[in-house]
Automatic annotation (TrEMBL):
GO terms for biological process, alphabetical: P450-containing electron transport chain
PROSITE patterns the record matches: 2FE2S_FER_2
Residue ranges occupied by any 2Fe-2S ferredoxin-type domain in the UniProt entry: 1-105
The keyword Ribosomal protein belongs to this UniProt entry's keyword annotation: no
The name this protein goes by in its record: Ferredoxin
Cofactor (UniProt): [2Fe-2S] cluster
Alphabetically ordered keywords of this record: 2Fe-2S, Iron, Iron-sulfur, Metal-binding
Amino acid sequence: MIKFTIEDHDGNRQEVEAPDDMGLSLMEILKASEYPVLATCGGMALCATCHVEVFDGQDGLGDATDAELDQLENLPEYFPTSRLACQIRISDMLEGAVFKLRGEDN
């Protein structure tokens, strides 16, 4: 199990614990933890409704794919540390990371 922090749309932070051996995405963990993530496309990097900003832990994520960047660059709020939660795989590299929800809430 690894631990990372999620900051919601209101600025409240909560530590989340997730298994790192199941191949889950950050989006799947956020939805399972009942965060307001629409994830309209189901994790295909087509809608950007799972947009997060990475406050800490960017180095462990690897580079965004071209498909992910295409979605992010069309958002009204795009930050240098923006990522799609559906494209971030849960691994020990996320230990201690901090993410802020930026996507549309439902």
